[in-house]
């Protein structure tokens, strides 16, 4: 660079361009304007100092000592507790720490006693991030997603949480566990369920009469099964001195015989209702039951079981009639025996739109996903069609429009409804066979919904289906839904539906729900 020594310099710059004689040591000296006014810069032979630096601020006073500005984030300024370095943008902002493939990137926190009393460190050699407090490593998240904590992990005591990993397979709901003999009191009865009610045909029991019928049930596993049967109701009052007894005999694999008789007293012609339970010491799932239809009629318990493909959890399969569906629904007063008794908090504790609720579930598709529909989320009823419920928030995949028109049938969609108006977002995720999807629905304190698939957030449309049938895509990945209707109690449902005359299946790993403890 050429020297300016001995050359005429404009008065405006003569104090900015310092000569070697003016800056001759390591002592910082202030730089002045041409009029002799102090500036925010000082120079020495080995350093330079600025009171504040703004990069790209366009003349705006920096928020802190070092302010890198791309565009305004709005009417906000940096906190006085964290303004030494400020990064600002109207969109995403970030700081990159680039390190070698076997090195680490670090953020250190120090004080007068220890220059690394706190530390965040990412180790590229094993792809693990660690957190240190009091100078000691206290938490590590490794490359497999395993979290190791040296202290005690405590959950917020302001949240109420329910977790279901399906250690026990759900049984049928009460609507699918009742059967009536078809013609006479000796006609064979078939009902494949762990428990249920058999309504017999009318029978006139004389003093020495007995009546017997065969009961087919695939929950009976040979002679080692315990089959308990009791009379729970009759159409005519029985005399005080009369007894009607029930016994089970000839227990075999898939069947037994049920016999009723008297104690030597004539019993008037009447209808008996029998309650049965198979192997009562083996209890079914206490939180969820199996709903839906099979062969266009009542559901069967065989449509839920354990996967054989290595996936943990349970499998759901459908019948082989077009639009047969199998759905997990909460056990409540409509699915209990006796009815009106809520044994599970999943249904008796309200999860309202005003309660800041969150639903997480893990599902896996099967090896065949054609001609099928899958739904998972928060609804009022178990039906997958989005026209059914006026208020809802759920994920939906369907290869045709039997459950309602969708933009791209091969993609995963998210449906939410506000007082009967439907909003559908095409998430742009092409659903694949044999794939696990982790789904999350979160409703905030303003009753707006955020959704995540495999921990990635997807934006939600505010355009109703009355404007664009089948839904639209949303480019803003952080966009939440419109405000949900206040005080609507929603229930979790996960279901699969056959959209042709071929059975379809899926797996469910877990369902989790939480809400504020207090409204």
Keywords, separated by commas or semicolons:
single chain; 519 residues; mainly beta; Immunoglobulin-like; Jelly Rolls; 3 domains; eight-stranded antiparallel beta sheet; eight-stranded mixed beta sheet; 1 helix; 37 strands; 1% helix
Number of domains: 3
Main sheet record? 8 strands, antiparallel
CATH topology tier name of the largest domain: Jelly Rolls
Helix proportion of residues, in percent?
Answer: under 10%
Give the C-level CATH assignment of the largest domain.
Mainly Beta
Query: Could you list the spans in which at least 5 consecutive residues all have pLDDT below 50?
Result: 11-15
Strand content: 35-45%
Would you tell me the structural class of the helices and strands?
A: mainly beta
- Would you count the extended β strands for me? 37
Which word captures the global form?
Answer: elongated
| Average pLDDT reading | 89
Give the distance, in angstroms, between the N- and C-terminal Cα atoms: 71 Å
Radius of gyration: 35 Å
Figure out the total of helices.
Answer: 1
What CATH architecture of the largest domain would you give? Answer: Sandwich
Structure described in brief:
With 519 residues, this protein is mainly β.
Describe this structure as you would to a colleague.
- This protein has 519 residues and is an all-beta fold.
- Strands 12, 25, 26, 28, 33, 34, 35 and 37 form an eight-stranded antiparallel beta sheet that branches. An eight-stranded mixed beta sheet has the order 13-24-27-36-29-30-31-32, with no helix packed on it. Strands 7-8-9-10-11 form a five-stranded antiparallel beta sheet, with no helix packed on it.
- The chain contains one helix and 37 strands.
- The termini are far apart.
- Residues 11-15 have low confidence and may be disordered.
- The chain folds into three domains: 99-149, no CATH class; 174-278, Immunoglobulin-like; 288-516, Jelly Rolls.
- The protein is elongated.
- The longest helix is centred in the last third of the chain and has 4 residues, at 345-348.
- The chain has one helix at residues 345-348; strands at residues 29-32, 38-43, 48-50, 53-55, 66-69, 85-88, 104-109, 118-123, 128-133, 136-141, 147-149, 159-164, 171-172, 178-180, 189-190, 195-199, 203-205, 210-216, 227-234, 244-252, 255-262, 267-270, 272-278, 288-293, 304-305, 314-317, 325-330, 358-365, 372-379, 392-398, 411-418, 421-430, 436-443, 449-453, 456-458, 491-498, 505-516.
């Amino acid at each position: 660079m050429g020297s300016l020594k001995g050359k005429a310099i404009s008065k405006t710059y003569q104090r900015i361009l310092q000569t070697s004689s003016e800056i001759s040591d390591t002592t910082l000296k202030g730089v002045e304007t041409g009029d002799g006014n102090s500036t925010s810069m000082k120079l020495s032979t080995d350093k330079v100092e600025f009171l504040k630096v703004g990069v790209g601020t366009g003349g705006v006073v920096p928020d802190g000592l070092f302010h890198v500005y791309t565009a305004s984030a709005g009417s906000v300024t940096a906190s006085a507790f964290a303004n030494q370095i400020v990064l600002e943008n109207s969109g995403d902002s970030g700081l990159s720490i680039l390190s070698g493939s076997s090195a680490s990137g670090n953020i250190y926190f120090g004080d007068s006693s220890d220059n690394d009393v706190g530390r965040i460190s990412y180790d590229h050699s094993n792809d693990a991030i660690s957190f240190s407090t009091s100078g000691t490593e206290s938490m590590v998240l490794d490359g497999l997603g395993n979290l190791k904590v040296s202290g005690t992990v405590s959950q917020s005591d302001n949240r109420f949480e329910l977790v279901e990993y399906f250690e026990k397979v759900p049984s049928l709901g009460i609507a699918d566990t009742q059967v009536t003999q078809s013609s006479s009191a000796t006609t064979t009865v078939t009902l494949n369920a762990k428990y249920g009610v058999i309504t017999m045909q009318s029978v006139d029991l004389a003093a020495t009469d007995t009546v017997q019928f065969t009961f087919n049930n695939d929950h009976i596993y040979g002679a080692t099964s315990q089959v308990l049967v009791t009379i729970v109701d009759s159409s005519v009052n029985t005399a005080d001195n009369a007894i009607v007894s029930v016994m089970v005999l000839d227990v075999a694999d898939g069947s037994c015989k049920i016999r009723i008789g008297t104690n030597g007293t004539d019993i008037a012609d009447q209808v008996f209702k029998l309650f049965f339970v198979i192997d009562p010491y083996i209890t079914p799932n206490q939180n969820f039951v199996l709903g839906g239809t099979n062969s266009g009629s009542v559901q069967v318990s065989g449509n839920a079981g354990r996967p054989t493909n290595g996936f943990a959890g349970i499998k759901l399969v459908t019948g082989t009639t077009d639009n047969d569906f199998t759905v997990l629904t909460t056990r409540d007063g409509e699915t209990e025996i006796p009815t009106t008794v809520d044994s599970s908090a999943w249904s008796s504790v309200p999860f309202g739109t005003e309660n800041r609720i969150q639903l997480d579930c893990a599902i896996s598709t099967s090896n065949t996903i054609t001609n099928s529909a899958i739904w998972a989320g928060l609804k009022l009823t178990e039906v997958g069609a989005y026209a059914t419920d006026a208020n809802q928030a759920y994920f939906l995949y369907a290869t045709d429009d039997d459950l309602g028109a969708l933009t791209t049938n091969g993609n995963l969609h998210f449906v939410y409804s506000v007082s009967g108006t439907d909003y559908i977002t095409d998430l742009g995720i092409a659903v694949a066979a044999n794939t696990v999807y982790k789904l999350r629905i979160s409703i905030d304190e303003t009753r707006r919904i955020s959704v995540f698939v495999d921990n990635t957030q997807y934006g939600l449309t505010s355009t109703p289906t009355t404007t664009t049938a089948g839904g639209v895509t949303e480019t803003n990945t952080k966009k939440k839904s419109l405000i949900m209707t206040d005080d609507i109690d929603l229930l979790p449902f996960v279901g699969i539906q056959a959209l042709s005359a071929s059975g379809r299946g899926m797996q469910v790993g877990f369902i989790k729900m939480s809400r504020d403890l207090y409204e």
